[in-house]
Amino acid sequence: MKISLLGGTGSFAEGLVIRWAKVGHEVLIGSRTQEKADVAAAEINEKAKEQGVDGSIIGMENGEAAKASEVVVVCLPPEYTNATLEGISSSFTNQIVISPVVPMKFGKVVSYDPPESGSSAIDIQNVLPDSVNVVSAYHNIPAKGLANFEKPLDYDVVICGDDDEAKAVVSKLTEEMPSLKTIDAGPLEISSMIEAITPLIINMNKKHKHEFSIKFI
Ligand SMILES: NC(=O)c1ccc[n+]([C@@H]2O[C@H](COP(=O)([O-])OP(=O)(O)OC[C@H]3O[C@@H](n4cnc5c(N)ncnc54)[C@H](OP(=O)(O)O)[C@@H]3O)[C@@H](O)[C@H]2O)c1
């Protein structure tokens, strides 16, 4: 599949980019500028070589990357996500859009800070055309874990969304990454509950100097 990662120059995208390129997907790194996208693509292609990927990762401006792909992952900071997507909304037709976006407030503890709509995923669905299907996923997976190819990703990925076919595609893409298991939690309305687990994990990580994720048994 053609998969783009908007804000794909950031830390969260790296592991997903390499893992999907490794299993043969055409992966596009999106950025606000073509120059930064090109630099990031060159760097990530270099790292991906160690995983047997042959330089196929391409950098593009966010709008061009979204337009060219079937699946779009929103790897943007929560506070800039709506404005960025509004600015490139004409690039969207019927893509599946994956939201790992977690709106948080940083104080003595890290807390969930949802927008008025209830969650970042619902905000994203609201700013994009109705023909786009948003699926929430990957909020609880640490960027460092995704980019570490030495240690298995022995985690559960809770997903939610309103379209079963879109969720089936995201489940398949997820389970192509060794050891990850997908659990469908229901409609997009559930996303606030999934997003809210991430600040809990971050507080636990700080306290225990560990990198937690989640697994349901
Ligand atoms: N990091 C994690 O472990 C983790 C885990 C789970 C979920 N997430 C979620 O994944 C998303 C990405 O996280 P991240 O840590 O990769 O974020 P990040 O590194 O802070 O930012 C990602 C990219 O967003 C773009 N960006 C920065 N400021 C922007 C602005 N004002 N307007 C538009 N684009 C801007 C930048 O790309 P360009 O400069 O190239 O445009 C940047 O490389 C977030 O929503 C986060 O909640 C992260």
Describe this entry's structure for a reader.
There is one protein chain. This protein has a single domain (2-208), classed as Rossmann fold, CATH 3.40.50.720. It is built from 9 helices and 10 strands. It has 217 residues and is α/β, with parallel strands linked by helices. The protein has helices at 13-22, 34-49, 62-67, 78-87, 120-127, 143-146, 164-175, 191-195, 197-208; strands spanning 2-6, 26-31, 58-61, 71-74, 96-99, 104-106, 110-112, 133-136, 156-161, 181-184. The strands form 2 sheets. It has an 8-stranded mixed sheet with strand order 3-2-1-4-5-8-9-10, with helices on both faces. The site of NADP nicotinamide-adenine-dinucleotide phosphate has 21 residues, from helix 4.
By CATH, the architecture is named: 3-Layer(aba) Sandwich
Structurally, the number of domains stands at 1
Oligomer: single chain
CATH classification class: Alpha Beta
Spell out the key features of this protein:
single chain, 217 residues, 8-stranded mixed β-sheet, 9 helices, globular, binds NADP nicotinamide-adenine-dinucleotide phosphate
Give a nutshell description of this structure.
The chain has 217 residues and is an alpha/beta fold. It has one domain: Rossmann fold.
Helix and strand topology:
Blueprint: E1 2-6, H1 13-22, E2 26-31, H2 34-49, E3 58-61, H3 62-67, E4 71-74, H4 78-87, E5 96-99, E6 104-106, E7 110-112, H5 120-127, E8 133-136, H6 143-146, E9 156-161, H7 164-175, E10 181-184, H8 191-195, H9 197-208
Parallel strand pairs: 1-2, 1-4, 2-3, 4-5, 5-8, 9-10
Antiparallel strand pairs: 6-7, 8-9
Helix pairs in contact: 1-2, 4-5
The protein binds NADP nicotinamide-adenine-dinucleotide phosphate.
